[in-house]
From TrEMBL, chain A:
SUPFAM superfamilies: CheY-like (SSF52172), GAF domain-like (SSF55781). The keyword Kinase applies. The keyword Metal-binding does not apply. InterPro entries: ANTAR (IPR005561), CheY-like_superfamily (IPR011006), GAF (IPR003018), GAF-like_dom_sf (IPR029016), GAF_ANTAR (IPR012074), WH-like_DNA-bd_sf (IPR036388). Keywords: Kinase, Transcription, Transcription regulation, Transferase. It comes from Lentzea miocenica. This is GAF and ANTAR domain-containing protein. Residues 166-227 form the ANTAR domain. Pfam families: ANTAR (PF03861), GAF_2 (PF13185).
UniProtKB/TrEMBL annotation, chain B:
This is GAF and ANTAR domain-containing protein. The keyword Transcription regulation applies. Residues 167-228 form the ANTAR domain. Pfam families: ANTAR, GAF_2. InterPro entries: ANTAR (IPR005561), GAF (IPR003018), GAF-like_dom_sf (IPR029016), GAF_ANTAR (IPR012074), WH-like_DNA-bd_sf (IPR036388). SMART domains: ANTAR (SM01012).
Length: 247, 240
């Protein structure tokens, strides 16, 4: 973990916390930055919805196996534990027995991961979800890295709760709803694109992201455009990535 | 936690329906909101083909008047919630700020007897079918628990309304609402894929997905997985 990298990460995150805020893009940016800055192998951000289920709102990769690992934690697992207790949960090894969540552990092993850290996303009294960090190697992350990781989770929380989605009068319920609904919209648009392009979901998502970056439009706006048919498919598919981060 | 919240709400609604000798419907859920969430009235606005929306049901005269105001003035908390797709919670209508925000709606709504209005969109991503509009005749915010309950109730109303549409595609009866949230990624992805396969809107695609699941006695999530993995395709003319 380099200090330079870290400073850049926080500047980049702070930059997105301006008036025109896209919660889903922010969550994905954060997940990507976790991977590069913290030197972990995969990261995901899960927020709890009003049914008390955890929903993935941002992930460093759209790999089906990784998403399955997040989905499996809907109602139970290390991430839910972290959310409920507002405290970090570490699984330093998925191979040691006994495992508290055996199904989760065997899926994590199958996906090629050795260890997991879940960090709470909290602001004062309120916990809204958890940041998940997967590493291929086994063992706990060093203490300084975990402190930075917690700081990133805190930034994400503040970012999300402070976001001025509609107006200053709308409450937290509105902000979380906005993030969760944007995610639904993106999944629907991925389905539309995957069917049109005859691609898989992760290629469809990359196409959405590329277009969103190169046209400087919110991911959720691009998703709406794809669903409404107001974005030209040929142009969408032909869009080259202009952002070096994506390489 | 909220799994319990849903179970609690479903139990309450079942009891309420049994006591009144009716079956659970979106109307019955609106009636139940009054005691369940602690409001003076509840009203349901549905978006229809015209895009202007119309009232489906109102528990009282104030609710009906609020909907008329939304329709004729084209502004207000319900308009904003439907347009933005997120809840709009107005604990005190009578304020300078709200006057600025909805200059025509606020005085008229107050004259009709409302002092607080809370709107919860009926929405799943691109699918926006309307809003649940709650009001109180005295000002004051909903508690965080009441807000959560209202979210769960709005989801429940949405699945009851989808059931009604699903019935149009089925000979058999739709299973009773289990209130399962439609929150799995595969369900949203499959809905998007189906909208292309069938050449229909996202709303219609979700209805067809559910109809297929019910007709084949399978869970919606299983059918969605088959569609996403391309083991199953639905055709525009084919049987559900």
């Amino acid at each position: 973990m380099s200090m330079e990298n870290l400073a850049e990460t926080f500047v980049e995150l702070a930059d997105t916390l301006v008036a025109d805020f896209d919660p889903v893009e922010f969550m994905h940016l954060l997940a990507d930055n976790c991977v590069t800055t913290l030197e972990v192998d995969a990261a995901g951000i899960l927020l709890v919805d009003h049914h008390g289920e955890l929903q993935v709102v941002g992930a460093s990769s759209d790999r089906a196996r990784l998403l399955e690992l997040f989905e499996l934690q809907h109602r139970q697992g290390p991430c839910m534990e972290c959310y409920l207790t507002s405290a970090p949960v570490t699984i330093a090894s998925f191979t040691e027995s006994p495992q508290r969540w055996p199904e989760f552990a065997s899926m994590a092993r199958a996906a090629g991961f050795g260890a997991l850290h879940a960090l709470p996303m909290r602001l004062r009294e309120q916990t809204i979800g958890a940041l998940n960090l997967f590493t291929v190697g086994e063992g706990s992350l060093p203490e300084p890295t975990l402190r930075v990781a917690q700081a990133m989770a805190d930034v994400a929380t503040i970012g999300l709760l402070q976001a001025q989605v509609i107006s200053h009068r709308d409450l937290l319920a509105g902000q979380l709803q906005h993030a969760l609904q944007s995610r639904v919209l993106i999944e629907q648009a991925k389905g539309v694109l995957a069917e049109r392009m005859r691609s898989d979901m992760s290629q469809a998502f990359e196409t959405l992201r590329r277009y969103s970056r190169s046209h400087n439009k919110h991911l959720s706006a691009v998703a709406e455009g794809v669903i409404a048919g107001t974005i030209d498919m040929t142009e969408l598919v032909a869009t080259k990535d202009t952002d070096p981060r994506a390489r | 936690m909220s799994g319990e919240r849903l179970a609690k709400l479903l139990a309450y609604l079942a009891e309420d329906a049994a006591a009144r000798g009716i079956t659970t419907s979106s109307e019955a859920v609106c009636d139940a909101c009054i005691r369940l969430i602690g409001v003076s009235g509840a009203q349901l606005t549905l978006m229809n083909g015209t895009g202007r929306g119309e009232s489906r049901y109102s528990t009282n005269e104030i609710g009906t008047q609020l909907e008329n105001l939304r329709f004729t003035l084209g502004e207000g908390p319900c308009e904003d919630a439907v347009r933005s797709g997120v809840p709009v919670l107005v604990a005190q209508l009578d304020s300078w700020e709200n006057d600025q925000r909805w200059p025509l709606y606020v005085p008229a709504a107050i004259a009709a007897g409302a002092r607080a209005v809370f709107v919860f969109p009926l929405r799943s991503g691109a699918i926006r079918i309307g809003a649940l509009v709650l009001h109180r005749t005295s000002p004051g915010p909903l508690s965080p628990e009441q807000v959560q309950d209202a979210h769960v109730v709005a989801d429940l109303i949405m699945s009851l309304l989808l059931d009604e549409l699903t019935r149009l595609h089925l000979d058999s009866e739709v299973p009773p609402a289990d209130g399962m949230p439609l929150s799995r990624a595969e369900v949203h992805q499959a809905t998007g894929m189906l909208s292309v396969q069938l050449g229909v809107s996202m709303d219609e695609a979700l209805v067809r997905l559910r109809a297929h699941a019910f007709a084949h006695d399978r869970s919606v999530i299983d059918v969605a997985r088959d569609i996403v993995s391309r083991r199953l395709r639905l055709s525009p003319e084919g049987p559900v």
